[in-house]
Write a structure and sequence with these properties.
Length: 341
């Protein structure tokens, strides 16, 4: 179990997988002790619960993928988030063990019933249902079950009362998706969805760059913000360099357009916040070479308010759509899309 996340944690601290000078050996051993320690701390308080969560997550992923392969992307992600939550909780002087356990469970319901968002049910609610069965079987008290349920449910509930552990899981989940490890996992995920490189760029890179840019502002904890600054810069640099190399070596020319989302001032704020949306699109229509007309709008999704961009070629009418949830909407009012001048 620990070995699954060892590459992730080492990369998280900036240490490559190849052998390091002897001066770094103590650091590597310390990291290894920490990563085993966070899982041990959970199992000491809740014996056997880690393995039960792993089995449930791996089973659900096999059902949705139809594959019997041994490696589980979702379990690996859950371990990564749990380690970060444990680490952030320690820095914030909160219950690290409970934060780690909640993080292990945060995606346990993502693929329930072999479907994603079955019956339009947010995975956090499905995860809370899965967690209830696992925690009860593991002997967790009713009070503990209710606490963990509240943490998970509040992850998607807009306007929910402030909860320090929910904030920690929120930050850990986003942080796990960025930086060099996050970039690697992005391409793994798009491959699992059947996308090639061009498909990943066309369908998902706008979201990834937007979230990377907004990552520090999306954090709810001080410890999360400190980690987010570096991860944001690493992710944006990588994606920009990738697009440049695709142009220089493969002749694939993409551009990054900015659209600004103005977040209306709430009751506790005097001025409106703004988020820059990074829209990644081909410079010209791939059918006729025409220019794109971009039509933005906002829609209410299952868990969030979505930015929707419909691109239509002015010459031939070729069209496609880019849409994704806007980051950092939990504590702000209505939004408005405007052109970035």
């Amino acid at each position: 179990m620990v070995m699954i996340i060892q590459p992730l944690i080492i990369l998280e601290r900036g240490l490559p997988m190849t052998a390091r000078p002897s001066a770094k050996k103590k650091t590597v051993k310390k990291i290894q002790r920490q990563q085993s320690g966070f899982l041990r701390s959970i199992d000491r308080r809740y014996p056997g619960v880690v393995d039960k969560i792993r089995q449930a997550i791996e089973k659900s992923e096999r059902e949705v993928s139809g594959s019997e392969h041994e490696d589980s992307f979702l379990w690996e992600h859950s371990l990564h988030v749990a380690y970060l939550a444990w680490k952030i909780a320690g820095a914030e002087k909160k219950d690290s063990t409970l934060a780690g356990l909640a993080a292990l469970l945060h995606d346990a319901g993502k693929f329930q019933g072999g479907l994603y968002h079955q019956n339009n049910l947010p995975e956090e609610e499905a995860s809370a249902r899965v967690a209830a069965g696992i925690l009860k079987e593991a002997g967790v008290t009713e009070k503990g079950q209710r606490r963990l349920k509240d943490i998970l449910i509040n992850l998607h509930r807009e306007g929910a009362a402030a909860d320090s552990l929910t904030d920690i899981i929120h930050d850990a989940d986003f942080l796990a998706k960025f930086g060099l490890v996050g970039v690697a996992n992005f391409f793994i995920k798009t491959t699992l969805r059947g996308r090639n490189l061009q498909g990943a760029i066309m369908n998902h890179l706008s979201k990834e760059m937007t979230y990377a840019a907004a990552l520090p502002l999306n954090m709810r904890t001080q410890a999360g913000r400190q980690l987010a600054v570096k991860k944001s810069a690493e992710s944006l640099d990588f994606y920009k360099n990738l697009l440049q190399e695709l142009k220089d070596i493969h002749g694939l020319s993409y551009e990054i357009k900015k659209k600004r989302v103005v977040l209306s001032a709430g009751k506790k704020t005097k001025s409106a916040d703004k988020i820059d949306v990074f829209l990644v699109l081909p410079r010209k229509c791939d059918r006729c070479g025409g220019k794109w007309e971009i039509n933005p709008r906002l829609e209410k999704g299952i868990k969030c308010r979505q930015a929707v961009f419909r691109l239509v070629c002015e010459q031939c009418g070729n069209a496609y759509q880019i849409n994704f949830c806007l980051p950092g909407l939990n504590r702000v009012g209505p939004q408005e899309l405007v052109d970035n001048k």
